[in-house]
Design brief:
247 residues, alpha/beta, 16 helices
Length: 247
């Protein structure tokens, strides 16, 4: 599994990012800042309903707690079995991606504008106090200086790495910009008609960032820097948007 692990900081982070159902034959590769909380909740609730099990979320932490939910990790399944599922055409492999400039702005707004674990880890990497504020322009300069910093956190890591794009033959790559229709199509494909999306933003208001206002302040220089830093993701996004009309 080394080819998968190298995209992540640890084996546990890799396991946390992959969601598997043997009952309903799917593998979902999680992509933070791309409605992943809503996707994980919707998948787990649909599985529970189809299996006649009770699952209710009291807080947003429940959605991210793998032990609280039904979907398995590769480690829990067994890595040999996981490889078999990836090669099995009866298993539906999917992920979601997002336009890279908006994603990086959302990552900064939700993770680096308060005393989060992500901010503390980044500051320690830079030799700064854990809670030191980091202006957005400085954040972009830091990302441009070192690819390993760009990829140290799942919220701003290259999406191509986060979803293991080069290692998986995906049946569906959904777009954040077409989120409702694409997730509904996935849920219908897996569970049949009448599936509901569990919108985590509506149920837990604290999950909403101020990225919309921040992105309006970006300069052309900011955008050019982000475009260069995330050029691989921009190529991936362009490829996937072009494919939408062909699928």
């Amino acid at each position: 599994m080394n080819e998968f692990y190298q995209n992540f900081n640890s084996v546990s982070e890799f396991n946390y990012s992959v969601h598997i159902s043997e009952e309903f034959h799917f593998v979902y590769f999680n992509n933070p800042k791309c409605a992943c909380t809503t996707i994980k909740a919707s998948l787990n609730l649909a599985c529970a309903a189809a299996l006649g099990l009770h699952l209710k979320y009291q807080g947003i932490g429940d959605i991210h707690n793998r032990h609280y939910n039904l979907l398995k990790t590769p480690g829990a399944l067994g890595y040999a079995r996981f490889r078999e599922l990836l090669a099995d055409p009866s298993y539906f492999k999917f992920c979601f991606i997002r336009e890279p400039v908006h994603r990086i702005v959302s990552a900064f707004a939700s993770k680096l504008t308060w005393r989060s674990d992500s901010l503390a880890a980044l500051n320690r990497r830079l030799g700064r106090p854990d809670s030191a504020a980091l202006p957005f322009c400085e954040f972009i300069e830091v990302l441009a200086s070192d690819d390993s910093i760009r990829d140290m956190d799942e919220h701003w890591r290259l999406q191509a790495k986060q979803v293991c794009f080069d290692l998986v033959q995906f049946d569906k790559i959904g777009l954040f910009e077409e989120f409702d229709s694409h997730l509904k199509a996935v849920l219908q494909r897996l569970f049949g008609e009448g599936q509901q999306i569990f919108d985590a933003r509506q149920h837990f208001q604290g999950n909403i960032s101020n990225s919309n206002s921040l992105i309006q302040t970006l300069t052309e220089h900011n955008r050019a820097e982000i475009t260069e830093i995330y050029k691989d993701d921009l190529a991936l996004y362009s490829h996937c948007t072009e494919r939408q009309g062909l699928d």
